[in-house]
Write a structure and sequence with these properties.
Number of domains of chain A: 1
CATH topology of chain A: Rossmann fold
Strand content of chain B: 15-25%
Helix content of chain A: 40-55%
InterPro entries (chain B): PDH/Transketolase, THDP-binding, Transketo_C/PFOR_II, Transketolase-like_Pyr-bd, Transketolase_BS, Transketolase_C
Largest sheet of chain A: 5 strands, parallel
Shape of chain A: globular
Organism (chain B): Candidatus Woesebacteria bacterium GW2011_GWB1_43_14
Oligomer: heterodimer
Shape of chain B: globular
Number of helices of chain A: 9
CATH class of the largest domain in chain B: Alpha Beta
Structural class of chain A: alpha/beta
CATH topology of the largest domain in chain B: Rossmann fold
Largest interface: A-B, 28 and 27 residues
CATH architecture of the largest domain in chain B: 3-Layer(aba) Sandwich
Radius of gyration of chain B: 19 Å
CATH superfamily of chain A: Thiamin diphosphate (ThDP)-binding fold, Pyr/PP domains
Strand order of the largest sheet of chain B: 3-2-4-5-7-6-12
Distance between the termini of chain A: 24 Å
Radius of gyration of chain A: 17 Å
CATH architecture of chain A: 3-Layer(aba) Sandwich
Structural class of chain B: alpha/beta
Order of helices and strands of chain B: EHEHEHEHEHEHEEEEHEEHEHEHH
Keywords (chain B): Thiamine pyrophosphate, Transferase
Number of strands of chain B: 14
CATH class of chain A: Alpha Beta
GO molecular function (chain B): transferase activity
Distance between the termini of chain B: 27 Å
Protein name (chain B): Transketolase, central region
Order of helices and strands of chain A: HHEHHEHEEEHHEHEH
Helix content of chain B: 25-40%
Largest sheet of chain B: 7 strands, mixed
Strand content of chain A: 5-15%
Chain lengths: 275, 331
């Protein structure tokens, strides 16, 4: 796909946010805060960064994207639909019986995704295994992974961090959605993650910190990850959970909750794209 | 008598029968798999020597991946490699893989339907002196409950070697269960092996009991059949190396012919081979059944022979179970 400039990405992100709200209100359950907070990163990935072709989803040279924190599925699904991977009408079926859009993404029901996800801490290891295998064959595409901050409390994740650092997987770029919330509260109260930068650096990773709502920063961070010659890169993206909806912004209570009809109406009003 | 069509070892009941662990057969099979198919990769969690991936590592160092003492990473990294198109054999001790990393196997391998081969070495009480913490007696149950998972439990080194090559080609998530301890090699290169097909190793006219065994204890079952025949009790012995998918037709046929079943496994009675057979029979053709296996207990240190005696897994225990089940059938 042709990369879109920042101004158009903004528009895409607004559409993603609106679709997230519409999906969640219809589904009646699901996660609101994380998906809204990640809309800009999803827009940047699928409309600018990733080398991919929705017409040919299994194209061999495509960049690979692994979503580790599967609970942000609404953002992922809205993005895939807007990119043309499946009809927009699918979005109305989120979490319903027989829907390809399961509560958490399922590869066997959605063949264009690289992996099923939901249980936390598993995505980076799969992405790292994929990156290792791709490098064995000198494949030229890149492997991206999107993780949540709280899944850094899982041991499996750090096993993968060690593995990727040891093996200098410079074809691997991982994003952290650093929104500081998790289901029961603030990450730093529940199980502190800081200093994240130092942790990754000590595991031999290239670390970049950005504002996860700034398209220029997102795109340029990936650019410098591409230039890194012997380390995997982690992009710590500071985001606001619930971004764009004033009643949800920064509130952990919205981690695993869907809006009511009236809340959704208000949210959609706020999310209207303004040039 | 021994089923002659299967080309079993002529030394099967001789004192000088070759002794070799199933893990050694696996190690040789993996090297052969590596030679046959360049997509095959070997992974281990700091146990390459003791699970015998070291032979593969020596011949194909560029296709061996060391993940350190990290069994969760072992299978999730393997999942990513399989998604790419490799055929990963991820090996550790069964107590750690699938013991420690069950949910990782469920989500990233079985649910995702990628063809990772999970190799659980040092399974069963016959691990011996390492003791209960290292004796996996639950791994068959953990793996057979997963949709899409193929579950293999190998009875000797030659069969294990064949299983590696068959698993390489099956395109499915597959568990291979192996033992540490040297055990009799009673099959030969010519003995048929097909995933999903149970074979009758010992047959006799008008059998009174069918003994269905998996893993190296199959040899105890064959010895039991031989001793039973000396006391005029005819039996069948079936090698059930594939726990899933179960060869239901073979099991139902055996139940119809013999009218009584004994299952034999180095695993908990709950959830393993015995349970799998009981499910088939309950649905299709219920007959009296006895279970030879570990009875809701943990193991302990000791040498393998002492342990199978203490925990009731010897040919003598199989004989007693056979006599019990025949009595139940006749009552």
């Amino acid at each position: 796909m042709k990369p879109l400039p920042a101004e158009e990405l903004k528009e895409k992100a607004a559409e993603i946010r609106q679709e997230i709200i519409k999906m969640l209100v219809l589904a009646g359950s699901g996660h609101s805060a994380g998906p809204l907070g990640l809309a800009d990163i999803f827009a940047a990935l699928f409309f600018n960064i990733l080398n991919h072709d929705p017409e040919n989803p299994h194209w061999e040279d495509r960049d690979r994207f692994f979503l580790s924190c599967g609970h942000v599925a609404p953002a992922y699904y809205a993005t895939l639909a807007l990119a043309g991977y499946f009809p927009m009408s699918y979005l109305k079926t989120l979490r319903r019986l027989d829907s390809p859009l399961q509560g958490h993404p399922e590869r066997m029901k959605l063949s264009m995704i690289e992996s099923s996800s939901g249980p936390l801490g598993l995505g980076l290891a799969q992405a790292a295994g994929y990156a290792y295998a791709a490098r064995m064959d000198e494949a030229r595409f890149r492997i991206f992974c999107l993780t949540s901050d709280a899944e850094h409390q899982e041991g499996n994740h750090w096993e993968a961090v060690m593995f990727a650092g040891k093996n200098k997987l410079n074809n691997l770029t991982s994003f952290i959605d650093r929104n500081n919330i998790q289901i029961s509260g603030d990450t730093e109260e529940i199980m502190p993650l800081e200093p994240l930068r130092d942790k990754y650096e000590s595991f031999r990773w290239n670390v970049i910190e950005i504002n996860g709502h700034d398209f220029d920063q997102i795109i340029s961070a990936v650019g410098s990850a591409r230039r890194e010659s012997d380390k995997p890169t982690v992009i710590i993206a500071k985001t606001v959970p619930g971004r764009g909806v004033s009643s949800m912004e920064g509130k952990y209570e919205w981690h695993g909750k869907a809006p009511s009809e009236s809340e959704a109406k208000q949210a959609l009003k706020e999310l209207k794209y303004k040039k | 008598m021994i089923n002659k069509k299967l080309n079993l070892s002529p030394k099967i009941f001789k004192r000088d029968i070759e002794m070799k662990a199933t893990r050694d057969g696996f190690g040789e099979g993996l090297v052969e798999a590596g030679r046959n198919n360049e997509k095959v990769v070997g992974l281990s969690a700091d146990l390459s020597d003791s699970v015998r991936v070291s032979l593969f590592k020596k011949e194909f160092p560029e296709r061996y991946i060391e993940v350190g003492v990290a069994e969760q990473a072992l299978v999730t990294i393997a999942s990513g490699m399989a998604a790419y198109g490799k055929i990963p054999f991820a090996a550790s001790y069964a107590i750690f893989s699938p013991g420690r990393n069950w949910e990782q196997i469920r989500t990233t391998i079985a649910f995702n339907n990628v063809p990772v081969k999970i190799v659980g070495g040092h399974a069963g009480i016959t691990v011996g002196p390492d003791g209960a913490t290292h004796q996996a007696l639950e791994d068959i149950a953990l793996m057979r409950v997963l949709p899409r998972m193929v579950v293999l439990s190998l009875s000797d080194a030659v069969e294990s070697k064949k299983a590696v090559l068959a698993a390489m080609d099956n395109g499915k998530p597959t568990y291979l269960r192996l033992s540490r301890t040297d055990s009799p090699v009673f099959t030969t290169e010519k003995t048929p092996f097909e995933i999903g097909k149970a074979e009758i190793y010992w047959e006799s006219r008008d059998p009174k009991v069918a003994i269905i065994a998996t893993g190296p204890l199959l040899y105890e079952a064959l010895n039991a059949a031989r001793k039973l025949s000396k006391s005029k009790i005819n039996s069948l012995v079936i090698n059930c190396h594939t726990i899933k998918p179960m060869d239901e037709q073979a099991i139902i046929k055996a139940a119809k012919i013999a009218g009584a079943i004994v299952t034999v496994e180095d695993h908990q009675m709950t959830g393993g081979l015995g349970s799998a057979i009981a499910e088939v029979l309950a649905k299709n053709f219920p007959v009296p059944m006895e279970f030879v296996g570990v009875n809701d207990q943990y193991g302990e240190s000791g040498n393998p022979r002492e342990l199978i005696k203490k925990f009731g897994l010897t040919s003598e225990d199989i004989i007693s179970a056979s006599k019990r089940v025949i009595r139940r059938k006749n009552n």
